[in-house]
Amino acid sequence: MMRIRNVGFFVVAVAVALSARADQKTRRNAVVAVVEKVSPAVVYIGTEQIIEERVRGDQWDVFEDFFGPRERRQAVQGLGSGVIIDPSGLILTNDHVIHGASVIHVGLADGRTLQVEVIGADADNDLAVLRVQGKGPFPAAKLGTSSDLMIGETVVAIGSPFGLSKTVTSGVVSAVGRSFKANNRVYNDFIQTDAAINPGNSGGPLLNVDGEIIGINTAIFASAQGIGFAIPADKVKRIVTELTQFGKLRPAWVGLDVAGLTPRVADRLGWDKSHGVVVAAVDPGSPAERAGLQQGDIVAEVGGTPVDDPEDFDVRLRSYPAGAQIPLSVFREGKLGPLTVTAQEFPAKLGEALSWDRLGLKVRAGGGGMQITQVRPGTAAARIGLSAGDVILRLNNAPVQSPDAYREALIAARQARSVLVLLRRGRSAYHITLPF
User: What are the average pLDDT values for consecutive 10-residue runs of the chain, which has 436 residues?
Assistant: First the structure.
């Protein structure tokens, strides 16, 4: 009798197990398949940053009386996500995840924790490329395309929010070509999704239902509810190529000066839209001139997305590296048509000219920065009292310890109305603002 009961129990258990397997098979949808396929390539990124801060003792601290406030070094931990895109161990993540870190390590799906090296990073586009320092091959995800995204299509985000390994969220593509301001920067041409992207998700992949990376998640707009953003895969490809080859994104130059489009100017040119910028000048021999752009043209779109103002135009150009073909939509004499400009690296001579023409300064490397050798009379720099021997340490908060760094800072600021300069004279340092 006991044997019969045991057999009956065994039959029931087998039936339940088979039923569960069958039920699981029907529940295995596209999202589950994507997670199983790509999760091994998603990594946890841990960082450590050493911050020095001044601390004061109590009123009886005799050492403070003689030596002033003491300094304390404090290690600040950070975390984020990343995704391996090549079996050699090439990782994509956000620039803000690793920015300022003195130590970076990654946690792999197989349980290993390995150090990484930074191949390159670009703050303007919030993207960084790392390489694992360990023996491969490593599981890798495929970098797809974002050019054919459909509003409403299902997407999956995988990351390590708050250090929780392999957290998955899903949603849809809410919009493409989004621009917004955060952290005193303008971020351009992002994918918007309602898939939850939390601070620890930053740098993880946004995937389509085929398991291809269509964007790199970022949480720079984390205060919004139900709104997430990702850097489109096509932009990622352009930037990764530059970062892996040069360690930075070389500034793209097309040789255009543009101005805001007022209603009066738009009406005179026959343009009945509210977006766009008008070409104020075309540099001789520039890519823009070779492409056929003319003074008075209206640039309505860059890369298929409408341009709002000169600042927006400049930000969009910064997402293209030197050598890239930039598709424009140009309005001229009542007709709107496509035009492609092949960008080139900003000429060094023009970068040097910016310093003299706009700031009235000639400089050379020295004193831990760029030492002023000549100040043009009648300029704002001369009126403020700048003189030969003063040392420029930073330009718009960017260190300028070499001619290349100084030139790049000037190029980055070329559309601005003013620049913030950190100047050292003798033992004192001053912040001054110069018109640009």
Answer: 54 54 75 92 85 53 51 60 95 91 87 91 90 91 94 92 72 87 74 84 92 90 73 92 85 87 91 93 93 95 88 82 91 94 85 87 93 94 93 91 88 79 92 91
3-state helix, strand, coil in the chain (%, to 5): 25, 40, 35
230 bridge partner residues: 191, 217
Prediction pTM value: 0.72
Two structure tokens written together for 372: 């002023």
* Catalytically annotated residue among 95, 96, 174, 355: 96
Q: Residue 65: beta bridge partners?
A: none
Of the candidates 146, 170, 174, 202, the residue annotated as catalytic is 202
At 405, the amino acid letter reads A
CA 191 from chain centre, in angstroms, equals 13
| Domain range for 233 | 154-246
In a domain, 423, yes or no: yes
Q: What is the pLDDT of residue 2?
A: 47
The pair of structure tokens assigned to 418 is: 């003013």
Contact call for residues 369 and 424 (beta carbons, < 8 A): yes
H helix runs in 68-182, sequence order: 95-98
107: in domain:
no
Is 228 a domain residue? Answer: yes
Is 126 an active-site residue? yes
**Is the Cβ–Cβ distance between 288 and 341 less than 8 Å?**
yes
Phi, psi (degrees; rounded to nearest 5) at 260: -65, 150
Question: CB neighbours of 179 closer than 8 A, spacing ≥ 6?
Answer: 186, 187, 188, 189, 190, 305, 308, 312, 315
- 330 shares a domain with 271: yes
233 in a domain, yes or no? yes
pLDDT at 292: 95
Catalytic residue among 86, 95, 126, 189: 126
Residues 262 and 293 placed together within one structural domain of the fold: yes
> In total, how many domains does the chain have?
3
202 carries an active-site annotation: yes
- Write down which residue in 183, 211, 246 finishes a domain: 246
Which among 218, 246, 274 is the end of a domain?
A: 246
CA atoms of 72 and 67, how far apart (whole Å): 14
Shared domain for 162 and 212, answered yes or no, is yes
Q: Quick check: helix, strand or coil at residue 366?
A: strand
Quick one: 238 and 281 in the same domain? no
CATH of the domain at 401: 2.30.42.10
At residue 63, the pLDDT reads 44
